[in-house]
Design a protein that fits this description.
mainly beta; eight-stranded antiparallel beta barrel; 2 helices
Length: about 210
């Protein structure tokens, strides 16, 4: 799964023009809000978003006796359209992640400030796919009800993920689902990675 996602990320990064050409004559658009002050695309704009995280960890050292954690994320996004098909979306998110343990071990909570940089391609007027990398900085670790020092407990302050998802837009509103696959270890001495499924609702503002 990790190799497939890395291949897709590299392919998108190396040839964004190929996706733009997939919309003959500019027939596709995604005018979810009034934008386009700097380009002819209706994909240019900004807004707020937030939603649900189904978070867990995976890897050789993740062990058993754990379940997904029900948490949340929230933040801002900005989108720049190259044309009616292709755009780049950058977000700044607070994302609460981690895992629950079912064998008496304290639950693990990981708080991140995340910046996804995503290529957006419009499949129809309202339906689009998103794919790209996400860089995150670990700001807080909680085990049970105790705050842990990030460095002293072997956690890595930087996390890199691959992101893929789909979104549906109605007027200024957007409803989407996204999968984040961790590509770097969350701890220095353990092969454990983040694994998050997200559902979100966003709202775009006019320029």
């Amino acid at each position: 799964m990790k190799k497939i996602l890395l291949f897709l990320l590299l392919a998108v990064a190396s040839s964004p023009a190929a996706f733009a050409q997939a919309a003959p004559g500019g027939a596709l658009s995604s005018k979810d809000y009034t934008g386009g002050a700097t380009t002819e695309s209706g994909n240019t704009g900004f807004g707020v978003k937030g939603g649900y995280n189904l978070a867990n960890v995976y890897g050789d050292d993740a062990g058993s006796g754990r379940s997904s954690s029900n948490t949340f994320h929230a933040g801002l996004y900005g989108q720049f359209g190259f044309n009616d098909f292709s755009s780049i979306q950058v977000e700044a998110l607070y994302s609460r992640q981690g895992t629950k343990f079912t064998d008496g071990v304290d639950n693990l909570r990981l708080d991140y400030l995340s910046v996804p940089v995503l290529y957006v391609g419009n499949i129809t007027d309202a339906f689009s796919f998103h794919i790209g990398p996400q860089a995150s900085v670990l700001t807080k670790v909680v085990s049970g009800d105790k705050d842990l020092d990030i460095n002293d407990n072997g956690f890595k302050s930087f996390d890199l993920s691959g992101v893929g998802g789909l979104e549906y837009r109605i007027g200024p509103a957007r409803l989407g689902a996204r999968y984040n696959l961790g590509l770097t270890k969350i701890a220095k001495d353990a092969k454990v990675y983040n694994n998050v499924f997200q559902v979100y609702l966003g709202f775009g503002f006019t320029q």
